[in-house]
Amino acid sequence: MITGAIKNKIDKIWTDIWAGGVTNPLTVIEQLTYLMFIRSLDEKELETEELEHSSGEKLAKIFPQSAQGQAMRWSKFKNNDPRDIYAVISQRVFLAIKNMKNGCLPDFTAQGEMIEPQTPDDSATDTAFARYMSDAMFLIPTPQVLQKIITGLDDLYEHDLTGLDMQGDLYEYMLSKLATAGQNGQFRTPKHIREMMVALLRPTPDDVICDPACGTAGFLVSAAEYIRQNFEPTMTAEQWAHFAGPAFTGFDTDRTMLRISAMNLMLHSIDTPEVDYLDSVSKQNAISDKFTVCLANPPFKGTVDAESINDNLKAVTNTKKTELLFVALFLRMLQKGGRCACIVPDGVLFGSSKAHKALRKELVENHQLRAVISMPSGVFKPYAGVSTAVLVFTKTGAGGTDKVWFYDMQADGFSLDDKRSEIADNDIPDIIQRFHNLEQEQERQRTEQSFLVPKQDIADNDYDLSINKYKEVEYVPVEYPPTSELLADLNALEMEISKGLAELEEML
Length: 508
Prior knowledge:
single chain, 3 domains
């Protein structure tokens, strides 16, 4: 749990970077990510050295054994003069990470020329983070700012971050500072909403989980946390090997986001996830019937080039709107029996175009649409005020929708203004409990907060999935006093005012 004291330390590091002239929150996180990765390599090397000492076996090393190679280690340079630290990181360490191969960093000559790393055949493969370092840029402006960051991070790691969970929480707190939406309508999904969606699907250690619009990999991290919390004591060696990488796949079209998501996953014990640069709805992506779980908050805004869209998506919903194409994509990428929880804008639920109707009909008639959870419009503030819903469905390819569960979420535990302050009202625990006990919802009336709607009713309403189409409002008659009584009250009030005015005049 990140305490106020730890947040203050992070905020201090953040302020130091801002004071140095780096003001874009994404750039700040990116630069901090590089430094955290550099430190993590030295931590890993220290563990290897300890294991080598205790076992007596010669193990593959990350850092070259030369004087120049050892000088690149965090523990070796962190107490040096700020100018020396800046020179080592900007001219050697950063360049070395960008050219990391098979888990080993290249060496440098005394003159600063890079030597390609000589790696043994059985050395560790590169992390997902290292794969996306080729176009990274080191933007810390001065040696003084760099020293402040290194001192601040070292203090955090040595005194506050006692394990991977804490490091993950630290990174989550940093990511929460990303308060600007992307050009394509991408914005970070609040952690409690992600955790709700994960709890609805209940992933297991054997699942293969994908977010085809992963951003900072929040959904993959939440799924990983759920699996560890619920299955860690009983997981087999094979399941742990699966968990370390193959279980998690994410795609994005922003390499900066891929670096950040790779670091986020590394801090949650996932070193080799399938995090790749890919336009998920394009013809480049031919993946189908692969995953057992999809979790996503795909981009809502804008359209994509019609010629680049994969034809099998257009066969489901002939459109250029990304929010519709991604739902069709989930259906294609899931195995039969695979389940999905995704966030969609309200327009997907009731849009009247052929593409909107075709997609909803596909979900209801050819697969099992399980739930439509309508969320209040303030959930994504301060990023955006758009009204959204969570769709939960299972891919069957042969129907299966009997009744669809609707829930009208009124509160998510936070105020619905830009401040998003914590409040007592929270429907999320109720949503999770009711979703996993739908047999108890059979007798619920449509005047209540949640209820079931038969498939035929939805078909009769042109597959409209808006909760307002089915929710019944209970009007309670209000009884007013007779007109004569109201007039008498008004007269009495008027006399009281006149008396007060007369008393005021006498006082003057």
